[in-house]
Request: fold
Amino acid sequence: MLFRAYTPRAPLCELIEDFWLYEGYASEHLHERILPSGTFEIVFNLREDELRIYDPSNHERGRRFAGALISGPYARSFMSDTAEEEAILGIHFKPGGAFAILGQPAGEFANTHVDLGTIWGPTATELRDRLCGLSEPSARFQFLEQAIIARFPDPLIRHGAVRKVLALLTRTHGQARTRDLARAVDLSQRRLIDAFTAQVGLTSKLFGRVQRFQHAIARSRHSTKVDWAQLAVDCGYFDQSHLIVSVR
Reply:
């Protein structure tokens, strides 16, 4: 299997974590659980013009999308179809980075998937077709970078309070309370929630919950034998069952 990642140059690096590419991916399972990250992805299927997403509680309940897809910020898990992942390329946005490129409030994409063509029209199909026509990972990354730079807003408008709250939630692994965050940026709780949701896609409380879960998963990977009950308490959960429920 081939995996490549590329960090775009400025100014895209302000909004995007990386571009990524998988080719020759094969799984033993028909479906793969995607854990919540609270961030956006734009995904291109480079083999066929379709992607399928399933409900984690019912693998028979699925939706079909075009081969160019927006995956909004999720606060819960979902299932992907591994048969559609033999060759896929994606854009992984930083928290709060996608709304500027997509040109719409991020909250409209929370916990959902949307065909990229619904937002960008025929340009989405043209972009995917060009990516499919290229063979080298570097060429695909460079073309995608140029295409996204053309959509970079000038000037880039970002809410300073949201950036500060994101930094606080990252530093506290999602355990900062909304009232404390609002006080730190001198906004009412309602104003903070509205601004944060519009730029990030989830409320600050939900985004913090995802950050806490991701922190727990990251810590679990550093040990060959995990005491899940103790890990749950250390990461701010009431108990192990509270940690388990948080991913559903």
